[in-house]
Amino acid sequence: MDERTIVPRSFIAEIIREGGLTPWIEYPELIHRAMDLCTGSGCLAIVMADAFPDAAIDALDLSPDALDVAEINVLEYSLGERIDLMDSDLFSAVEGELYDLIISNPPYVDAHSVEELPPEYLHEPEMALGSGEDGLDITRRILEEATRFLNPLGVLVVEIGHNREELEASFPELPFVWLDTESGDGFVFLLTREMLVEAGM
Questions:
Q1: 3-state SS class at 6
Q2: What's this model's pTM, rounded to 2 decimal places?
Q3: Domains observed in the chain
Q4: How far are the Cα atoms of 58, 89, 139, 194 from residue 152, in angstroms, in the given order?
């Protein structure tokens, strides 16, 4: 894939490029519809388009400014016909739609850490960083709603920063699969639709 302007900061890009979704996704051609939730600049949607060449991708974000940047990046890669950018409060714009793969790198910085961020981070919109007292407000909403938007055998992949302990304590019934990255295995989790359903989500 051409690296002209897209340098994702997310561990999810690393996982996708390194084939880290096997065996949950055995063949890339099995992904026909995918979602990048909280897409930001659209980087991960573009990575998905490269990794899953048969997939139509919906890239959702609540920030108009982020979507403007995402549009520039999507057009730079000539992916306008495959990536549909949507203004959406999480899943609100895609009610009734179903996906084989949903990925998300949502805001996950806790309130204390937001207060301690160095000045250069303050250029980012606050909604792009903070997510409640423990950093998991948006992740909780994703987990509570994702089942309705996943096909059978559909896969959910979410990055949560350093919040693994808090997340597992909040959802002890969920069998989180923690995916390996160069920095360790505590930053990105995977759940299938079946895992969510069995846990009563």
A1: coil
A2: 0.85
A3: 11-20+29-158 (3.40.50.150)
A4: 18, 24, 21, 7
pLDDT in tens, 127-179: 444 444 555 889 999 999 999 999 999 999 999 888 899 899 999 999 999 99
DSSP result, 63-110: -HHHHHHHHHHHHHTT-TTTEEEEE-STTGGGTT--EEEEEE----B-
CA–CA separation, 27 and 135 (whole Å) = 33
Number of neighbours of residue 177 by Cβ within 10 angstroms = 15
Q: How far apart are CA 201 and CA 193, in angstroms?
A: 9
Reduced to 3 states, what is the DSSP secondary structure of residue 32?
Answer: coil
- 171: three-class secondary structure by DSSP: coil
Mean pLDDT of the region 27-39: 96
